[in-house]
Amino acid sequence: MSVQTTLLILGASGDLTSRLLLPALGQLLTREPQRRVRLRGAGIDDWDDEHWRQTVRASFESAGYAAAFGAVADTAYERADITDAKDLARLLEGHEGRLALYFAVPPAVAKASCEALADVEIPAGTVLALEKPFGVDEVSARELNATLARLVPEEQVFRIDHFLGRSTTLNLLGVRFANRVFAPVWRSQDIESVVIRYDETLGLEGRAGYYDRAGALVDMVQSHLLQVMAVLAMEPPATLHERDFRDATAAVLRATHVWGDDPATASRRAVYTAGRAGDRDLPAYVDEPGVDPSRRTETLAEITCEVRNERWEGVPFTLRSGKALAGKDGEVVVSFRPVNHVPDGLTGAAPGSVLRFSLGPDRMDLELNVNGGDDPFELERALLEADLGEGALKAYGEVLSGILDADATLAVRGDAAEESWRIVDPVLAAWRSGAVPLDEYPAGSLGPAHWPALP
Q1: Which are the contacts of 213, defined by CB distance < 8 A and separation ≥ 6?
Q2: Catalytic residue among 51, 95, 162, 224
Q3: Please, which pLDDT band fits residue 379 given cuts at 50, 70 and 90?
C-alpha cells in the first residue's frame, strides 16, 4: 500500500494553483488511482472550505479529470499568513504520513515563509517544494540554500523546474545512452555545436509584475535551459537515481562558462516592438500594462557557453529564449561535424548530420546525407522522423509525482541552482553596464535581422 501524503499548497488561492497544480494533480490521480493523497490549501484570501472545494473541482473538470475529485473530496482550506511562524505551526499540526509543502507563491514570499519555518517544529520527512527563481543572483541563492539546509535535508528540497518533467528532455537520456550509434559520438570530436531554444509567440500575457523584473534571461535561460543543457551534456551516470543523476548534471554546470569569458560578445538581448505574432496584434513591450520602460527588460535573450571538460571543450552551446516571435519553437539541435573525407565520385554537399529534439510536440528528427534517387552518385539530404509521444504525464504531473514520492531526481539541487546563477551573473552585469546593446525586433518576426541565424 502506498504511503499517504498530505499535499499542503501554500498560496492555494493563487493563479498557479488553479491553472497548473490542480489540473496536474487531477491527471496524476486519474492515471494512478492507488495514490493516497490528502489535499489541503492555505492562503491569505478569506475563503471557506466550500469555496476551495469548488475551485479544486472546477480545475479538475476544466482539464478533463472530473472523476478524480472523489479522491480529494474531503479537502479543506485554512486562511493563514504563511510568513508568520504561529500560522505555519498551526498548518503543520496533525498530519498523518508524509507532508509536502508546495510554495505556490512569489519567490520573495516563499523565502520569507522558509525563514519563518526556522521557528517551527517541522514533521520528520517533510518535503519543501519551491518555484523558480531560486534567488536573484549567486549570493542570494547561497543564502536561500543555507536557510533551507537548516529546515530539512537537501534530498527533501524540491526546487521545481517543470522542464525537467518534459518527456522530451527525458527522451534525451534514452536516445543518447541506449544507442551505440549515438553514445560514442556524443563528444567534441564529433559534435560541432548545440543549440537549445524556446521561442514563443505569446507576449507578456499580463505577467508584468514578475517578468518586467526578470526578463527572458532569468525567466528561461538561467533556470530551464541551463538544466536541459546539463541533461544533454552530462557524463553517463551509474543509475538514474537521485544522487547519481544530480551529481552528473551538477558537474556539467560547474564546468560551464560564458564563451571566451566575455559576456559582451557571447550574449545578445532584444525587446519586441509592435507587430503581429500568431493571430494577434501585439503592442510594443514597453507599452504593455505594468511595464517600466526604464528597466530596459529584454524579451529575447541569447547566450553562448562552453562546458570546459574533456568531452565538450571547444563546442559552443547556444541557449536562446524569447517572446512574441514568429512561431512556437522549442527544440534541442545537435549539429555533428562533417565526415573527414567523401570518396571521389560522390557529388554534392555533405554537411554534418543534424539531430533535433522538439520540445512539444515531442519528436526527434535526424538529417542525413544519402544517395540520390535519380543519380545514386549525387548526395541528397534525407530526414528520418520519430514521434516520441507526449509522455504519460504533463510536466507538472511529473513534478507532483516526484514530490508525492519524495523522489528528488527531477528537482534542481542546491549547488546546481547556485552554479546557474554563477554562469549568468557576468552576463547580467554586462547588460546593466550597457556593454551589450538592447536591440529591437517586431513582434511576429524571427528576432533582430542582424543576429546570426541558428541551425
Answers
A1: 295, 297
A2: 224
A3: very high
